[in-house]
Amino acid sequence: xxLESKDGSIAIDESNVNRLFIxxxxxxxxLGGLLFGYDFMVIGGATIFYEAYFDLVxxxxxxxxxxxxxxxxxILGAAGSMLFADLVGRKKMLIIAxxxxxISAAGTAVSWSFLAFNLFRVIGGAGIxxxxxxxxxxxxxxxPSNYRGKLVTLNQFTxxxxxxxxxxxxxxxxxxxxxxGVGHSGLTWNETMGWRLMFGAExxxxxxxLALVFFVPESxxxxxxxxxxxxxxxxxxxxxxxxxxxxxxxxxxxxISKEEVARVNLGEILEPRVLKVVLLGMFLALVQQWSGLNSxxxxxxxxxxxxxxxxxxxxxxLVFQGITMLIFCVVALFVVDLLGxxxxxxxxxxxxxxxxxxxxxxxxxxxxGVVVVLLVMLAIAIYATTLAPIMWVLLSEIFPNRVRGAAxxxxxxxxxxxxxxLTYTFPVMREQLGVAKTFxxxxxxxxxxxxxxxxAVPETKGKTLEQIERDIIxxxxx
Length: 478
Fold this sequence. Notes:
The protein is mostly helical and 478 residues long. The two termini are 21 Å apart. Helix content is 78%, strand content 0%. The chain has 20 helices and no strands. The protein has a single domain, classed as MFS general substrate transporter like domains (Growth Hormone, Chain: A).
């Protein structure tokens, strides 16, 4: 008989966890993160080329729209996840995400007009929105508590791999295009063909993801929510054996009342105890976006041009940015379950706030060059270790079982609304305020975020999702 703690949680024995199984299914689910990263970052290396092809030079409003079209799709995809993740299940949502990525990659590569380009970027953004919601949630729901931090951070690691892959692909295509030189109509090969290949290369991992996702099981927590305890137990036996499965089914079931089985009640999100957690999740999502790092990623060419770099120098610096993110995301894999989520979020928000303040000083006093690059790399290193992965870990953990899909969806919608505002306003802020004051604005927001995180964010490391629910929400009706 499993032991119960004072709060009703069952002590789950994780000594027989099948590590190979949980890492395998988590890696497949995390391919959604890889495509997220590629689709998210490819725009940074392609902008300068399609800007000439679509005659966007001197039109910051249209340039901002071309970058913001994917975030619009992200909002739509996240909203769809909010409505359907608890209805159709996590696995089907992963299949939908893979399909959207494949359609977007192929369509963007052959876009015949600026309108078609933006429509296919919206479709790709929808894929990001679905994957961003579903991949970490799926991994969290199938992972044992002592592995959950690492495995959800694995999704962020694959995002970084996708980012680096896009940057390496962009660099290779850009350098090849420079050797080819001028194409037709006075445009270079990169301006007519290179940017198309940058987007089209995503089709390869998208097809691989679509094929592999059919081999992962459904989330056991979603199955229990649907009243399919036997199927959930069969999957949990693969995770940790018979006794582990029995204890997990019993503990998960204790957080879902009989009235809530096989039904989705979005109205529960408005319950005061749940709503406060949803609002916290929305705030954390905004913090990750308005940290300003995504402006650097999306508008690297403009920022590094202001700092005195050539196109080739900027493309090379993008690769170093990606490698820096990848390295420090590995660091996050090792420290997330050691130092905990709360401390890393505190360090990240304060550290990036200070770094952005220094970047602003560098531009204000015309230091530029190497100083800006080093400070950007420092900000990226802090971001990759803290805000980038830990926000996803927290969002996958803090919501109750019975509304996790919808609550996480709301947070992800907030994230992409924040990103849309961020990427659309950066060119305007850059022109109206200047680069220095733009970074000081991000710095001020992050300092406020540091205070809120210090006061409001709970620690979740080493706890089952059900323990976290009881700690944050309290006992639920049986």
